[in-house]
Specification:
By secondary structure, this protein is of the alpha/beta class. The protein folds into two domains: 2-48, no CATH class; 53-297, TIM Barrel, CATH 3.20.20. The chain contains nine helices and 19 strands. The chain has helices spanning 94-97, 99-102, 115-124, 141-153, 168-175, 189-196, 201-212, 231-244, 269-281; strands at 2-3, 7-9, 17-19, 27-28, 39-42, 45-48, 53-54, 56-61, 75-80, 111-112, 129-132, 157-162, 180-184, 216-223, 250-254, 287-290, 300-301, 308-313, 316-320. The strands form five sheets. An eight-stranded mixed beta sheet has the order 8-9-11-12-13-14-15-16. The protein has a three-stranded antiparallel beta sheet with strand order 1-6-5, with no helix packed on it. Helix 5 (168-175) runs parallel beside helix 7 (201-212) and helix 8 runs parallel beside helix 9 (269-281). The radius of gyration is 20 Å and the shape is globular.
């Protein structure tokens, strides 16, 4: 166990505490856990039950996060602990994200690893960054922060792959330690309420906080038939991203049924094409199609002259044609973190 950050005892609350790590602001009574099921009140002190309990670790292409404008072609060391502050009906990693909530009778899984061991593993694997991913990194923020601080000292960058449902304080705190953040912008308020059991507004606020803090931000939307695929829903997402910065890359990905959301079919290719068109009409410079074989849909193209700068197939970079940070044909500066 490790003492948690971002909580306060409730005056007159008979030992209860209020957790301010994420936007749920859980009131947690003695012996109880928050919505994430991995933060527990023991004697009026809140503890993280997953500090250093690594349930998954792999060396991945950075494109898998997905991040297309952050050190393309590099490798990132991905880690996760069990748990999540969302209960998404379509979660692809539900076996680990929902385990503490669905199996409270069992010990929380994971191998004990220190922050230094994570950094050493990343270096040994030849990775340029560490990604806190697979589940929701907010719920293991204490461990992620300690890893990130050591990684920076070693010249290794840090990446969050997050649902963005943070408190402003925790978002600002981790923003000082990470270099990039892919944030899911899943849909409208109804989608967050019915599918994620959360709210939209904190996610929008986190995107703004990360961007203003200088973190490189990319946005992903998994387009689900009947839930967030209407022209109005897609336009609202695109317009919001453009209002923050038209250079934020938007990844629109095809949905495959999973977990509890099995009634919705796979996203038609035409819907993904429409979403890409919608993003570009909203003024976004970089819009990508994901989980679908769409020729050129994953390529980074110069918004000035349409020159192909980075060609991709899936998570593989096939070729790069960028001069420093500029298009070699027209000289336009291309936003991102380039090697």
């Amino acid at each position: 166990m490790n003492k948690a950050m971002f909580y306060k005892p409730i005056t007159g609350g008979n030992g209860s505490v209020r957790c301010y790590l994420c936007a749920h602001h859980c009131r947690i009574g003695p012996g109880k856990r928050g919505i994430c099921a991995v933060r527990e009140n023991r004697g009026g002190v809140l503890y993280s039950l997953v500090y250093g309990k690594v349930v998954a670790e792999h060396a991945d292409p950075i494109e898998k996060k997905p991040l297309f404008h952050f050190m393309p072609g590099s490798r990132t060391y991905s880690i996760a602990t069990a748990g999540c502050n969302f209960r998404c009906e379509h979660c692809q990693n539900y076996e680990i994200s929902q385990f503490p909530r669905e199996r409270p009778d069992l010990p929380i899984p994971g191998r004990e690893k220190s922050p230094q061991a994570i950094v050493d593993s990343a270096r040994a694997a030849g990775c340029n960054s560490i990604s806190y991913t697979y589940t929701e990194p907010t719920i293991f923020l204490e461990f992620a922060a300690d890893c990130a601080a050591l990684a920076r000292k070693s010249g290794i960058k840090n990446v969050f792959v997050s649902n963005g449902f943070m408190s402003p304080k925790s978002a600002a705190y981790i923003a000082r330690l990470i270099d990039a953040n892919n944030i899911d912008l899943k849909g409208g308020e109804g989608f967050y309420r019915d599918i994620c059991h959360a709210r939209l507004a904190p996610v929008l606020e986190t995107i703004k906080i990360m961007k203003s803090a200088g973190v490189w931000v990319e946005i992903t939307t998994l387009v689900i038939p009947g839930w967030n695929d209407s022209p109005e829903a897609l336009r609202r997402i695109a317009d919001f991203i453009a209002s923050v910065d038209t250079a934020i890359p938007w990844h629109v990905s095809r949905f495959h049924p999973d977990y509890k959301l099995l009634s919705a079919g796979e996203t038609p290719a035409e819907t993904i094409r429409f979403a890409v068109k919608t993003g570009k009409e909203a003024g976004l410079k970089y819009v990508y199609s994901g989980n679908i074989a769409e020729p050129g849909g994953e390529d980074t193209v110069c918004p000035g002259c349409n020159n192909a700068l980075v060609r991709r197939s899936g998570f593989t970079v096939l070729g790069m044609n960028i001069s420093g940070r500029a298009c070699p044909l027209c000289g336009l500066q291309i936003e991102g973190v380039w090697q």
